[in-house]
Specification:
heterodimer, A: alpha+beta, YaeB-like fold, 5-stranded mixed beta sheet, 4 helices, 5 strands, 34% helix, globular, B: mainly alpha, 434 Repressor (Amino-terminal Domain), flat
Amino acid sequence: MAWQIEYYKHRDGSAPAVEFLDECPTKIDAQFNAVLDAVAAAPPPQFSGGGKWEAMHGSMGGYYEIRLTGPGREQFRLFCLLENAAPAELRRRGLKAPSIVVINGMRKPHRTTFTDRDYRKHVRALGEDHLANIPRRLAQ
Amino acid sequence: MSQASFHERRSAERMRDPKFRAEYERARSEIEQIDSVVRSLDQLRESTGMSKTDLARRIGRNPSSIRRLFTAASNPELRLVVQIANDLDADIIVVPRRKKRDRLKEPKRASATAA
């Protein structure tokens, strides 16, 4: 069964990942879409995403990221959560099927790193908000 | 009738941009080829009844690196892919596409005709 692709929606109505994708170069936006669609079709945990889809570790354990390189070797990252459960539980969460939920994206120059503060503020805080919502708040 | 999701609607809209569509199709093709190689190796491993731990031991790798490879938890390292193929008595083969080769030859034929 193919997984759904959903986008987290903030309480202010914005969808941070969608805003991030909209600001990416066209080719990067297309590549993110291609990886998401390939992973959703596989579906997880089967190998997919051409090596661009990776599980994160440490303080980001439980998240998955799509890693892309853009013009000038700029680094683009898209952060996702996987949601899978029994059908009744998925319905309670407001999900039609197991889902890849895209939380947010970040970009950085080549050979620089995101700090834990970046991850906490721009990914984990949003991910925690997402998981706290029943039903989930998603871009429509 | 199921309603299209936000992602499906956004993708459909973005696909109207030829640059987006071309890059999407190129990326999907690349991803599918890489995924196909890794999945084929995993299927071959399963068909031999070999566990991931057994395979790791045979090629002198940490079992976690094999688990990560087959569950998309890490970027596949070509050297590891080749090691696994060797151990499973398989080859990684690059097959040129006939259409692409023909297309590459076309300009030469065209210029020869024009001359």
